[in-house]
Design a protein that fits this description.
single chain; 190 residues; mainly beta; six-stranded antiparallel sheet; 17 strands
Length: 190
């Protein structure tokens, strides 16, 4: 009974979060002629899907944020203590941009990216090293896009995502990589 009410409350909160992202006049599918700011609106996101994020062996006591300016030549931004790297390929942005990656506190392997809503000219690549993370045996990993951090349970028990993104695990099973085409929040799900 409590779980049913929790799911209902989470869904209402999700709708509130999506409404907060709505209202951007840019049309979905607009070609990225330059760096664009466009958060998906409710119609683009559609139905939220429940999933389970991977969890860290040790919970983060607080958010960890790293920022770096990256230009059209490309570059990367890392959170080394968490084994996370975001690679920005050459030509992904038309001008120098301040990229911010925030690992969310708690056990869930979840990140927020800024500038929120930015759409890239070429997909970025997120890489999560899997050491110190509980990866269930036989699981298939994928990225999961969430429009608001309130949709991720910090304990790692659940998350609501608007999109699943296929990725790949390295041959040595040590790293999971997935593409990022726009900025918001992402988890590694199984």
């Amino acid at each position: 009974m409590i779980r049913k009410h929790l799911v209902g409350a989470t869904q209402l909160l999700a709708l509130w979060a999506l409404a907060a992202c709505a209202g951007d006049p840019a049309a979905p599918g607009t070609p990225a002629s330059s760096l664009q700011s466009h958060a998906p609106n409710t119609a683009e996101v559609g139905v939220l899907m429940a999933t389970t994020p991977l969890v860290r062996d040790a919970a983060l006591a607080r958010d960890i944020t790293v920022a770096r300016r990256i230009g059209s030549g490309g570059g990367s931004i890392r959170i080394p203590q968490l084994g996370f790297t975001l690679t920005v390929p050459r030509g992904a942005v038309a001008r120098t941009t301040r990229f911010t990656v925030t690992a969310l506190k708690g056990k869930a392997v979840a990140y927020e990216f800024k500038p929120h809503g930015t759409v890239f000219l070429r997909p970025l690549v997120a890489s999560q090293h899997l050491a110190g993370i509980d990866v269930p045996s036989g699981s298939t990993l994928q990225g999961g896009y969430f429009p608001d951090r309130s949709l991720v349970d910090a304990s790692g028990a659940s998350a609501l995502v608007a999109e699943f993104i296929p990725g790949s695990v390295s041959e040595d099973n040590r790293t999971f990589n997935w593409p990022i085409r726009h900025f918001s929040g992402y988890i590694v799900a199984w």
